[in-house]
Amino acid sequence: GAGVxxxxxxxxxxxxxxxxxxxxxxxxxxSLFWYQQALGQGPEFLTYFQNExxxxxxxxxxxxxxxxxxxxxxxxxxxxxxQQEDSAVYLxxxxxxxxxxxxxxxxxxxxxxxxxx
Amino acid sequence: GDSVTQMEGPVTLSEEACLTxxxxxxxxxxxxxxxxxxxxGEGLQLLLKATKADDKGSNKGFEATYRKETTSxxxxxxxxxxxxxxxxxxxLQSGAxxxxxxGTGTLLAVQP
Lengths: 117, 112
Description:
Shape of chain B: globular
Helix content of chain A: under 10%
Strand content of chain A: over 45%
Strand content of chain B: over 45%
Largest sheet of chain B: 6 strands, mixed
Shape of chain A: globular
Helix content of chain B: under 10%
Radius of gyration of chain B: 13 Å
Structural class of chain A: mainly beta
Distance between the termini of chain B: 41 Å
Structural class of chain B: mainly beta
Largest interface: A-B, 30 and 26 residues
Distance between the termini of chain A: 33 Å
Number of strands of chain B: 12
Oligomer: heterodimer
Radius of gyration of chain A: 13 Å
Order of helices and strands of chain B: EEEEEEEEEEEE
């Protein structure tokens, strides 16, 4: 498809399990973002990639969160030893622009809803 | 740090009523400003944007003007429809990475 694709759409994990969330950005998009959206809240920035380089990971809440984009296209967000407070929708977004160009919109996927029991 | 504050919802209106959702921001430098909309069961999508002071963004009958003097970007529509029911997010974009900083969202419910 032409849009940002995320999988799985829904994930239920037991506390302590590891999860991996996948994002397929729009082909050719240089920049990729991960956001966390808790219920009833706005999306909160987690991390940013420009091609394969992770240039900003200031929003990752703990060292249990890890993201990669090894070939500059598909990205994976991994959460180790999940906790109940990790329950949220995880959004991926991409844009064709590199950093520093603040005039472009971000194209969002539909998100992966994680529920930790 | 940079931040966005928007009015809390829910906002409940009758069809054809006027809408204003307030948004103010705090930022260093000169951010670009956006309104994103999230319809039920769908992903976030851009509604409108403005990239410099006094610019007016508009789309689907919605408007917002970038006011640097009041650091505001209020969303307005003269006559809402039931199909406008959604969550609206104000956001700013600045700095070296293009990341968006969002407000908490405002739920709009339009009744026939």
